[in-house]
Specification:
Blueprint: H1 6-15, E1 38-41, H2 45-58, E2 63-67, E3 82-83, H3 90-110, E4 117-118, E5 121-125, H4 128-143, E6 149-151, H5 153-159, E7 169-173, E8 177-178, H6 181-194, E9 198-201, E10 205-211, E11 214-220, E12 223-226, E13 230-232, H7 238-243, E14 252-261, E15 271-274, E16 279-283, E17 289-293, H8 306-320, E18 329-339, E19 346-349, E20 355-359, H9 369-382, H10 396-399, H11 406-411
The protein binds flavin-adenine dinucleotide.
Flavin-adenine dinucleotide binds near residues 76, 81, 233, 237 and 364.
Length: about 400
């Protein structure tokens, strides 16, 4: 090794930024202007992806993202960051497969390490009904170019050496991945800000305005903003905002929790799910086990028993992997997800001209952001939804063309 003198190290250390203080800001902290071409309500992954695609793909840069708290602090910060396309309805499978593929190159596109890591997704079949359901699912998925397979019990045991629970096989999607969820929000924010989008944090939107039969602005804690296009990416709070202009968005709030254990030696490669045992588990690169905790059936933020529900999920995990019984939980948190009656998102222009929905993502919105942002920006810019997004129009509740994914959304 090359010898270095003490003065070299003193000089080197003198140039190291103190407490990261010299790092440049990743996005401009903007004060809201009095009018914009497009205003996006909610600075989560969907609001930011939509803003980025408006500016990048269509040159629409007179855009504000207005966030009541801090950027990416909603469900974007709280999810278990699983990316997959195992869905029942062909429209969902096609949409989420497109998103999975976009995630593969998103880090390069945004020049940001998103830590997309191919892990594989293994959902256990506990009886023949599960197996039959998985078989039907993989056929639907294959019809839209998404790959998955049904594994035999032996093949499952080969992948999960510590598994002790009874099962009759599993659903396997090898290309399923995990992502660094905060980094996705930061990357979109940085790219959108560089393209001229105003990112406004700490400003609450209280209502929308309309003039005649179209949107014309919003009211915020920083005053009024005129705009002819408002995008609702405020999660479950989108419903109340829509109601201020007489729109009904079919969204109900549900609590959903997750937890993380102390780090342990690597024992688990794929993300493992068991609906019967209410368990979802993946191991991070640092060795922690991240647990998705089944949501309660109670509607609303406060009407549930978080510790009771968490205990059920931990019990489920220990039933699957008894050798994990001594591992200690370090932290637990929750988010309030935005669930629609068919558990599929609301994406596109609503019944009121100029008001667009990008919400109702249930427990699966993290994985959807690249496709949803691209699709909604395209609809705003061209007036026409993309083929992938068209089935998710909020107006499907007027026609009855629902995209039923309910069981899936409750189990993730
Ligand atoms: C525990 C848990 C686990 C999950 N696991 C997964 C998973 O593994 N994979 C997956 O794909 N998805 C998962 N999800 C779901 C995923 O996190 C969400 O679907 C996704 O983050 C939705 O992004 P969003 O931008 O729509 O919402 P959010 O990230 O919640 O952003 C909405 C933003 O709007 C802001 N806002 C609300 N009201 C206003 C207002 N009036 N004015 C201004 N701003 C406002 C909020 O502060 C918030 O920052 C999980 C969710 C939870 C809670």
């Amino acid at each position: 090794m090359l010898a270095r003198s003490p003065s070299f190290f003193r000089q080197y250390l003198a140039n190291v930024p103190k407490r990261h203080s010299a790092w440049p800001r990743q996005w401009r902290r903007a004060e809201p202007k009095r009018s914009y071409e497009v205003v996006i309500v909610g600075g989560g992954v969907h609001g930011l992806a939509t803003a980025y695609h408006l500016a990048h793909d269509h040159g629409i840069r007179d855009v504000a993202v207005v966030e009541r708290g801090w950027l990416g602090g909603g469900n974007t910060a709280r999810n278990t960051a699983l990316l997959r396309s195992t869905y029942r309805h062909p429209a969902s499978a096609a949409f989420f497969q497109d998103a999975l593929e976009r995630y593969r190159t998103l880090g390069t596109e945004l020049d940001y390490n998103l830590m997309v890591t191919r892990r594989g997704y293994l959902q256990l079949a506990h009886d023949e009904a599960d197996r039959a359901e998985f078989q039907a699912m993989i056929e639907t998925m294959a019809s839209v170019g998404a790959a998955a397979e049904v594994l035999s019990p032996e093949a499952v045991r080969k992948r999960l050496l510590l598994l002790k629970a009874d099962m009759v096989g599993g659903l396997w999607q090898g290309e399923a991945a995990t992502v660094r969820h905060d980094a996705v929000a930061w990357a979109y924010a940085r790219a959108a800000s560089h393209l001229g989008v105003d990112i406004v944090e700490g400003v609450d939107v209280s209502s929308l305005w309309k003039f005649g039969d179209r949107a014309c602005g919003i009211e915020t804690t920083a005053g009024s903003i005129e705009t002819r296009r408002v995008v609702l990416t405020a999660g479950w709070r989108s419903k109340a905002l829509a109601a201020t202009v007489g729109l009904t968005l079919p969204i109900a709030p549900y609590p959903l929790m997750a937890a993380v254990t102390e780090p342990i030696a690597p024992i688990l490669d794929p993300v493992v799910v068991s609906m019967r045992h209410r368990a979802l588990v993946q191991q991070t690169a640092r060795g922690e086990l991240v647990l998705g905790i089944a949501q309660s059936d109670a509607e609303g933020e406060t009407e549930h028993d978080p510790f009771g529900i968490a205990a059920q999920s931990v019990q489920g995990l220990v039933t699957l992997f008894p050798s994990l019984a001594g591992v200690r939980l370090m932290r637990m948190w929750d988010g309030v997800i935005d669930v629609t009656p068919d558990a599929s998102p609301l994406l596109g222009e609503t019944a009121l001209e100029g008001v667009y929905a990008n919400c109702g993502w249930s427990a699966g919105g993290m994985k959807a952001a690249p496709t949803a942002g691209h699709a909604l920006a395209t609809e705003i810019a061209t007036g026409t939804p993309t083929a992938l997004a068209a089935p998710f129009s909020p107006r499907r509740y007027e026609t009855g063309a629902l995209i039923e994914e309910k069981i899936e959304a409750r189990g993730r």
